[in-house]
Amino acid sequence: MARLDQIIHQPVRLRLMAALVALDPDSQVDFTYLRDLLDLTDGNLGAHLRKLEQAGYVKLEKTFVARKPRTYVSATAKGRRAFAEHVSALEEIIRSQEG
Amino acid sequence: MKVSREEAQQSLEAIQQVSAQMRRTVASGADYLILWGSIWFVGFLGNHFSPGATSGLLWLVLTLMGGFGSYMLGRRTGRRVRTRSGLRLALFWLALTSYSLLWIWIARPSDQNQLSLLIVTFAMFGYVVMGLWIGRTVAWIGLGVTALALVGYLLTPTIFNLWMAVLGGGTLMCSGIFVRRAWG
Predict the structure, then answer these.
(1) What's the CA gap between B23 and B10, in Å, rounded?
(2) Do B80 and A30 touch (CB under 8 A)?
(3) Could you read off the pLDDT of B17-38 as tens digits, one per residue?
(4) Within a 13 Å sphere around the CA of A15, how many CA atoms are in the beta-carbon half?
(5) Stretch 54-83 of chain A: residues touching chain B, C-beta under 8 Å
(6) Mutate to test the interface with A, among B4, B16, B22, B25 (most CBs of A within 10 A)
(7) Do A26 and B84 touch (CB under 8 A)?
(8) How many domains does chain A contain in total?
(9) In which domain, by residue range, is A11 found?
């Protein structure tokens, strides 16, 4: 039976992980694009990313593009597995309470 | 952790919504199909109605526009999402275009239909290879347009350019619209 993940279950982090997992494993999303996509502030997104990074679910890569600092975010293999299990657990809840 | 059925349902809906938004972000492949389908449509119509130097000039302008458009699409996507496969694809198309020009120069096709067929099959070979990397839909589009081009070349040589404008360009444009909707 799949288990719910407490870190991922928080609504913002759930959407954050959903966005990252929708991409290919070799893809990275720009921090500002992710912020706009999820309608968050820099601080809010940063805080949730730190939590996910501490759990080993996302990887942050800071770099320079045209001399401007840029941060790229990607889901790790561990994060993808945890997210998939969380989704399975949600589906099981719906199935188990049906009818 | 206790989660109700309603909460689980809401979470899954939120996941689906964000996933669709993100897929739209990276679904620039549809825009490339629409761009190059439009270019083929106008270019082959030009070949049909005004063959010779005029259509050559038209193709030159269209190809430059397509190259610039593709660059802008790649830049737009690259600002949001960066991927190793994106660079690999760009280099693949650069190599394929260079070799295509070289092979056309070596083969020296004898008429415009042959030249058009060569270019179309080179481009569709690119789609097939790309499809093996990024998704079978693109490979099927490549194979389908190649088959249509061969049928038109062999069976309707007098209206081959018109055939390619409507069926070749049209297929690319419709595929782009289909992919965009499917990923939306």
Answers:
(1) 20
(2) yes
(3) 999 888 877 767 788 889 999 9
(4) 17
(5) 72
(6) B22
(7) yes
(8) 1
(9) 6-96
Residue type, A7: I
Flag whether A77 is in a domain: yes
Rounded CA-CA distance A89/A94 in Å is: 9
- Cα–Cα distance between A35 and A24 in angstroms, integer? 19
One-letter amino acid at B151 equals: V
Token pair for B21: 């938004």
- C-alpha to C-alpha distance for B37 and B168, rounded to whole angstroms: 7
Q: How confident is the model at residue B61 (pLDDT cuts 50, 70, 90)?
A: very high
pLDDT digits (tens, 9 = 90+) for A15-51: 999 999 998 888 899 999 999 999 999 999 999 999 9
Which residue among B1, B11, B18 sits closest to A19, beta carbon to beta carbon?
Answer: B18
Question: Taking CA atoms, what residue in B is nearest to A94?
Answer: B5
Q: Is there a domain that residue A12 lies in?
A: yes
ipTM: 0.89
- For residue A64, the domain's CATH number is 1.10.10.10
Q: Is residue A92 domain-resident?
A: yes
Residue A22 lies in a domain: yes
* B181 in Cβ contact with B34 (< 8 Å): no
pTM of the complete model: 0.71
Q: What backbone torsions phi and psi does residue A63 show, to the nearest 5 degrees?
A: -150, 180
What pLDDT shows up at residue B183? Answer: 63
